[in-house]
Amino acid sequence: MTIATGRLEQVQQKQEPVLRPQARKDKERAPLRVSTGGGNPLTPLARLLARSACAWLHRLAPAAIARAGLVILPLIAIEATVPATAANLAPSNQPPPDQPPSSPLIVMLTEPNPPYAFQAADGSYHGLNIDQVEAIAADAGVAISIDIVPWARALATGETEPMHCVFSTARTPEREARFKWVAPLGMSRRILVKRAGAPVAAASLQDARQFIVGTYRDDFSDGLFRRLEFPNIDMSPDVDTMLRKLIAGHIDLMPMSENAFRKIHDADGSIERVVTLTQQPVGIACHRSVPDAVIARLQKSLDSFLSDGRQQSVYQRYGFNWPP
Length: 324
Known about the structure:
Elements: H1 3-15, H2 21-29, H3 44-58, H4 62-69, H5 72-75, H6 86-89, E1 106-110, E2 118-119, E3 125-126, H7 128-140, E4 144-148, H8 151-160, E5 164-170, E6 180-195, H9 205-208, E7 213-216, H10 220-227, E8 233-236, H11 239-248, E9 254-257, H12 258-268, E10 271-286, H13 292-307, H14 310-317
Parallel strand pairs: 1-4, 1-5, 7-8
Antiparallel strand pairs: 2-3, 5-10, 6-9, 6-10
Helix pairs in contact: 7-13
């Protein structure tokens, strides 16, 4: 044996300590310790590459692993064990800590009722109620789509179809348990109006019972008129049809929000106020399948919307008095 050969064997012995059979098997099974160098979990791609490298290295002899470790392991910064499981390789679906959890798409339905909800010439939806609902949902991080349909269909769909809501819905005792609520979106002050100049006078709802009153399908006023035993109730499919009947003289009275009345009266003077009908809160009425967590996020957003002045800005943008 030459001196050079003897020194080489000494170096190899230091690099490759002799292992007992059991110790050798344990080393072969031991997982490689892998880290990104900063303590953060590896990305799915990095974990996949590390897993492949581990599988390849463990097929080699222990001596080869030790030698390879001198080159490969520093490249992947040995610091923390990454178990070779499917859970480590799967991408995480959890949102960042500063973002709310994702929610399913909620379909929001409302009725055609300018200026509260209407379709512009380009097909887009606008209106006082629509603008408010869009702002509340965006602030809550809740994905929604909005559609305008006849009120009776909107209310029936909101009650029977999962992940649907309907607005702005009068929050009456009869409806309370049928929906989950995000409220109050506003306070609805309803009055009875007549065609300007029509010979209709009533100082109370009792006096108004002698006239033909209009309503439309599934509006809360329909139930109210029936409870008050109005004998002459005319049914329309929507608000626009009912208003045309009033102007044409086919009905004597119709219910209308106070803000809508002001808008129409100031525009053309075609209608006049007769008597107050009712005052009650309105809100977003959701199917009971909508998760409680989503309702809570929408409610929190609505509370903020009411308190920070944004609702006042929307009302003023549409020329409505504040407070409503």
